């Protein structure tokens, strides 16, 4: 019983370094999940249905945040800095959705 604070700390044991292979050219370390060759592209790089779903969801969420901020303004309340920030945030979310719909990751490049 009790919390971890009331119990004594256990000594931390150091991790031993991995043993070095005896060959002169060790095998290269590949990160898990990384593509093994340049020809092998990521699986979700160009998924149209994923882009449509996420882009339209972000546009809808941005519209909801924007209209929730506009509701008090329609009732006659003056907008404060928080209301303006909420409207800007809602527009930003909607713009992010438009970017996902129009230009997926990996397709855009800087010219020049």
Automatic annotation (TrEMBL):
Q: Which UniProt keywords apply?
A: Membrane, Transmembrane, Transmembrane helix
InterPro entries assigned:
DMAC1-like_dom, DMAC_Protein
Would you say which domain of life the source belongs to? Eukaryota
Which residue ranges does the record annotate as region Disordered? 1-20
Q: Where are the transmembrane segments?
A: 83-101
Q: Does this UniProt record's set of keywords contain Transmembrane?
A: yes
Q: Please list the residue ranges annotated as the Distal membrane-arm assembly complex protein 1-like domain.
A: 46-92
The record ties this protein, via PANTHER family, to: DISTAL MEMBRANE-ARM ASSEMBLY COMPLEX PROTEIN 1
Q: What is this protein called?
A: Distal membrane-arm assembly complex protein 1
